[in-house]
Amino acid sequence: MLIKLTCSALAVTAGLASAAQAEDLNALIWCDHADPELLQPFEEAHDVRVNVKEYEGTAAGLTLLEQSRPGDWDVMVIDAVDVGRAVERGLLAPLPTEDLATGSYFPEAVLADHTTVDGTTYAVTEKFGYNTIAYNKAAVDPADMESLDALWSGKYDGRIAIYDYYLPVLGLVGLEAGVATADLDAAALETLREPLMKLGAASKQVSDVVGSQTALATGEVDVLIGGGEWLTAVLNAENPDLDWTIPEEGGLLWAQSLAIVEGTEKPELALEFIKYVTSPEGQARLATSSCYWGMPANKAAGDVLSDEQKAILRWDDQADYLARAQLYPVPDAETDTAMQDLWTDMLQN
Amino acid sequence: MVAPALLWTLAFFVVPFAAMVMMSLAHMEGRDIVQGHDLGNYLKIFTDPSLRRGIFVSLEITVVVTLISVLLAWPLAWIIATRVPPRWRRMALLLAVLPFWTSYVVRSYSWALVLGERGVVMNALVGLGLLAEPVQIMATRAATVIGFVHFFVMLLTLTIYSNLIQLSPNYARAAEDLGASRWQVIRLVILPLTLPGVMTGAFLTFVLCIGDYITPQILGGNNELSLPQLIMLQLGRRGDFPMASALSVVLMVIVTLAYAGCARWLKMERL
């Protein structure tokens, strides 16, 4: 009890200095939702303040929710493929489907199989993109980047950075080894150890979003495995040579979704927030957030985005990209632990 | 009189620490925390090669940083205390601690730019013909050590300077009268008398360095993981609060041992 109380207090005070105020909406988010350009119109329209707390990794987000009191959090951004995990633990509230704008979505981005559990919708996708290869086309041969083989060929040893998130990178290593992300279980994982260690040895660093952007922008590395438009788009104005591609083996589709947290005391306000973020205007702002860019799930955002923004997002190529991308691995608890152990081994050796 | 201090310690140290120890005795079943009283997490720390290595990585970095920082800070403090005219000392100290004025994170990212292959250091070395081509410093342990040393030299300079400035010049004069050379005065008289300042600064450096997450994360390139990085990995990625707590307890034990090792020299009243 003592532990739970302490953790609860820590979790709440970490991001919720004013959680008790009536006119606040408390959101567990990824960094793209912290952009004032995105939040301000909603705050002004509803005369509320959106308090955000960033988290990294679904496991951490779910733990935060479980250590908090009901009502501490109102909405949550979560990987679309992980919605089921959250629902299983009773952490998300049902969403009224009639209020969602999924009719104008890219069909592949709806991901109803993941956001709906037993016929009830718990989350709505809001943004998607790809974990694949990002590179500096002034420093590498773009033709090489059309195959993942190039990263294991030795040609780019010491010039590669690895994006520090085990799920997409293990997925990409799996694609290189001929293992589809859907087949990535504990047994298949062992076959990835050797190529992962080789990749680790060939890389210069393993870095988070900011570290990866810095390394690519400063020329510290020329290739980033796990990168994509979400990483290079914000740097496009500074360095148009930073590019990305989906190699012939394929790439991974990431899709983030928005959900109402079970126990919220402001379900109407939370729903309004979701409706705003998934509206064409909200989607355009989210797609071009200062933290990272990504494709809006709602196609209608194309009417709001400029041609230049759509070009950077490769709007017209989405049909091809979506056809070639695979979803993130969805490991069970045992496989997830094995994946993280393998990832830690790669970092530490 | 001591009641407020005791209450403060109880509320903000003893209770949280007890909670952390209790959490370290729990374990994960799948994605759930199961309360318990087993030492499985501690056993894993010392048997899992990746976790065990984290302890050694942290200790190696911390010891190297502490030694280098002391070696650089002592002469700097001595010069400021004895060679800089009194009216300029304040300015000299101000310049010495100037980097404290910037954000720790910003300073680390600045070092990342400076130490990069196309950064100031490599450009200068290659430009001067001292290197044929850039070598990798960024994303190595060396970068982490440089980032730490830059920070802790300032801290140590302050603690050693405050010790030096209190020493009566009569000690040096007496030694010189008795025939000691300048070097002997420094080595046999001044240096031992500044041990409290050195050890206090070194202990603070040890504690702050071994518990730091930012510098190795930004400058080390994640090519090896220190203890705080492993703790963050358990919290941020795995949601494994029990293992994070166990690693934190190990960190506390290391710091306690370090304190025990240098307690006899830690005389704060001498600063």
Describe what you observe in this structure.
The complex is a heterodimer of chains A (349) and B (271). In chain A, helix 9 runs parallel beside helix 16. Residues 1-21 of chain A have low confidence and may be disordered. Chain A has 16 helices and 14 strands. In chain A, strand 5 (116-117) and strand 6 (120-121) form a beta hairpin. The longest helix of chain A is centred in the middle third of the chain and has 17 residues, at 186-202. By secondary structure, chain A is α/β, with parallel strands linked by helices. The two termini of chain A are 39 Å apart. In chain A, 52% of the residues are buried. Chain A has two domains: 2-128 and 254-316, D-Maltodextrin-Binding Protein, domain 2; 129-252 and 326-348, Periplasmic binding protein-like II (D-Maltodextrin-Binding Protein, domain 2). In chain A, the strands form two sheets. In chain A, strands 1, 2, 3, 4, 7, 8, 9, 10, 11, 12, 13 and 14 form a twelve-stranded mixed beta sheet that branches. Chain A has a two-stranded antiparallel sheet with strand order 5-6. Chain B has 271 residues and is mainly alpha-helical. Chain B has a domain at 57-226 and 254-270: Orthogonal Bundle (MetI-like fold), CATH 1.10.3720.10. Helices cover 73% and strands 2% of the residues of chain B. Chain B is built from 13 helices and two strands; from the N terminus they run H-E-E-H-H-H-H-H-H-H-H-H-H-H-H. In chain B, strands 1-2 form a two-stranded antiparallel ribbon. In chain B, helix 10 (195-210) runs antiparallel to helix 13. In chain B, 35% of the residues are buried. The model of chain B has no long low-confidence stretch (mean pLDDT 92). Chain A: Keywords: Periplasm, Signal, Transport. Chain A: Its main location: periplasm. Chain A: It is found in: Periplasm.
